TrEMBL record:
Designated name of the protein: Pyrimidine 5-nucleotidase
Gene Ontology BP, a term: nucleotide catabolic process
Organism, as annotated: Heterodermia speciosa
Superkingdom field: Eukaryota
GO molecular function: nucleotidase activity
């Protein structure tokens, strides 16, 4: 992703590799997505950017079906939970990712950053969270739970009966501050927030969220109420490697 974005900047803005990297990081930090800054300041076509960058990624060589992730999703009690995708990527990228993971049929809907509409409003902008809440039918911000890393989850409950779960596939721009930033904004918004760290990640100096986990399987312990009660012991191992 970094290589494709920098190549795009060099090609369309006539920048050196060093200047492309600097501009990329500046726009990412300022706007949540590099493409947002490019649209605002350089009038580039975000759909063309998506075609040359996100859609050009050789994901088929990177992502393979993840049976353990599918099992985790399948173990969730669907009488309490709706599965819903929430991503900063355009719809084409999001659909490719979940299809390659083998979980595309596990979700009821998708909230994505629509590159056909400018200005763009990716996370951590308030508009992105508001859009996800509106499209998924969330009833109360105070009932939202957000888990951020390469996957973001949001859970809301209605008198303990209905729970909403939003999962975000974040394969747009993998940046060390990505999950921390999105978790911090979710927490500030009033959502109960969980920060997913990779096993090799160092502890952040300042926690981004109320809770921290290092593997998605820990969700069985963090939110036991949304999993099927008659499920036998879950399989061991990490779900983080492909997400």
């Amino acid at each position: 992703m970094q290589v494709l974005i920098n190549s795009y900047l060099q090609k369309h803005l006539s920048l050196s590799d060093a200047d492309a990297q600097t501009l990329h990081q500046k726009y990412y930090k300022d706007y949540g997505l590099a493409v947002s800054g490019l649209v605002l300041h350089h009038k580039i076509d975000p759909l063309e950017f998506n075609k040359e960058v996100d859609d050009a990624l050789p994901l088929e060589n990177i992502i393979t079906p993840n049976p353990q992730l599918r099992q985790l999703l399948d173990d969730i009690d669907k009488s309490k939970v709706r599965l819903w995708l929430f991503t900063n990527a355009h719809i084409t990228h999001a659909q490719r990712v979940v299809k390659l993971l083998g979980v595309e049929d596990m979700f009821e809907g998708l909230t994505y950053c629509d590159y056909s509409k400018v200005p763009l409003h990716p996370k951590p902008h308030t508009e992105a969270y508001e859009k996800a809440e509106a499209e998924s039918g969330v009833l109360s911000i105070q009932e939202c739970f957000f888990i951020g890393k390469y996957i973001n989850k949001k859970i809301t409950s209605n008198r303990g009966v209905t729970v909403w779960l939003l999962i975000c596939t974040l394969l747009t721009e993998l940046n060390p501050d990505d999950s921390h930033l999105n978790c911090r904004y979710a927490q500030q918004r009033g959502w109960t927030t969980v920060h997913l760290l990779e096993p090799e990640d160092l502890e952040p100096e300042v926690k981004a969220a109320k809770h921290q986990i290092r593997d998605l399987e820990e969700l069985r312990d963090v939110f036991p109420e949304i999993f099927k009660k008659d499920k036998s012991d879950p399989p061991h191992g990490s779900l983080n490697s492909q997400l």
